[in-house]
Amino acid sequence: MTVTIVGSQLGDEGKGGVVDLYGDAADVVVRYQGGDNAGHTVVHDGEKYKLSLIPSGAVRGKVGVLGNGCVVNPETLFDEIDALRERGLEPDVRVAERAHAIFPYHRVLDGIEEDEKEDLAAGTTKRGIGPTYEDKAGRRGIRIGDMLDPDTLRERLEYVVPQKKALAEEVFGTETGEAFDVEALYETYREYGTRLEEEGMTVDCGTYLQGRIDDGDNVMLEGAQGTSIDIDHGIYPYVTSSNPTAGGACVGTGLGPSAIGQGDVIGIVKAYLSRVGTGPLPTELAGVEGQTPGYDPDSSDEEEELATYIRDEGGEYGTVTGRPRRVGWLDVPMLRHAARASGFTGLAVNHIDVLAGLDEVEVGHAYERNGEELLTMPPTTEKWGECEAVFRTFEGWPDVDWAAVAKEGYAAIPENARTYLEYIESELDVPIYAVGVGPGREETVIVETPYE
Ligand code: IMP
Fold this sequence. Notes:
The chain folds into 3 domains: 2-95 and 202-267, Adenylosuccinate Synthetase, subunit A, domain 1 (Adenylosuccinate Synthetase, Chain A, domain 1, 3-Layer(aba) Sandwich), CATH 3.40.440; 101-196, Adenylosuccinate Synthetase, subunit A, domain 2; 272-446, Adenylosuccinate Synthetase, Chain A, domain 3 (Alpha-Beta Complex). Helix content is 34%, strand content 19%. The protein has helices at 15-22, 74-86, 104-117, 129-137, 150-171, 182-198, 205-214, 246-251, 257-261, 301-313, 332-342, 381-385, 402-408, 415-428, and strands at 2-7, 28-31, 40-44, 47-51, 63-66, 71-72, 92-96, 100-101, 202-203, 219-222, 264-270, 273-275, 326-328, 330-331, 346-350, 360-369, 372-374, 388-395, 432-436, 444-446. It has a 10-stranded mixed beta sheet, with helices on both faces. Strands 14, 16, 17 and 18 form a 4-stranded mixed beta sheet that branches. A hairpin with a 2-residue loop joins strand 3 and strand 4 (47-51). The longest helix is centred in the middle third of the chain and has 22 residues, at 150-171. The protein binds inosinic acid. The site of inosinic acid (IMP) has 20 residues, from helix 4.
């Protein structure tokens, strides 16, 4: 049985907490896309673990798999594993042989290209994610399996590195160093390959996972990032270079759509919106310099105050980069788009505690563009940028003892917050499975438990 977790907005919806909670019943937790751009924090036995690549389940004794749809920086992989070992854990992490490896030149090029793009820059994490997927699609990538075979690794590097060096030096006019040196890369990546082999970490992902399912084990598929930064369904070009939507769980693991479709697909919704990076955001409050297009430092004090309040209450600062995130009201057309694209069977709505104490809570119920009302996202980002949010206002709810609410259950959630939740449920026509009322995993109201 599988359960797939998908971010329904722009990433940072609190997927980790839900994976953590529902992952208790899972034997294997798999990531199917992305790489070390996915900052997540896991709290286990009172200890905080910050991870950016390995699946959070690995902290809790589950097998953590990086599927073939991931791009894997072996340096980050081993750093994270070693850091967990130093803290007394024994993470069991497997990596798909079909996954592509991130090389130092990918990181360098990510930085150079972002600078070059100016207004079109996506505000990437500069982890080399996009350039690695580019090489994968361009059939010049190097896979984890290639690192296990010295001849293949050398052959691939000798083909690709001179091209990357020429791109950096001749097109972008930058100097290159060790990151573009075949011999240095070969030595380093052979060492990584040897370690992967010695520790028995590589798998044929689809075969491994199907075998576990056939044995009656539970598999959790953990999406990183979110639907609106999906390369196909997101706000292109301000997107990541992979598919966080549920279809990505099939291609990115080697399990078929029917295997994924037999289980739940849970959309994770944050009760408001946050965004790291550039591009339009119709329900944005105030703005962040360097990220909000046409940022106006003199926007109204009231909006700025509200934005700062939500940002601080919600801890809206990037886990990987520490950058302040842009914040806004819930964007319901964005959620309708996500629910359809992934076929959600359940919702987990997080952070309703962050909005507690406000007099009123607004939502972008629809958009208006050229005098027309739209209930879902238009297909181009330019059209999306022309959309004005049509707001609905809800009465606020008080700040309460959320840990007690989590213990007592759904009925203990303040009435106005339940009205808000039920509005989301009815607009998306998807039942609520869980409500996040605080940062700890105990601070979750569980309505439905998947796998049962
Ligand atoms: P990249 O994934 O580093 O290439 O970045 C592309 C876009 O995705 C940028 O706008 C990033 O801010 C955004 N992004 C990547 N990973 C995350 C994440 O884990 N949470 C939120 N945004 C992300």
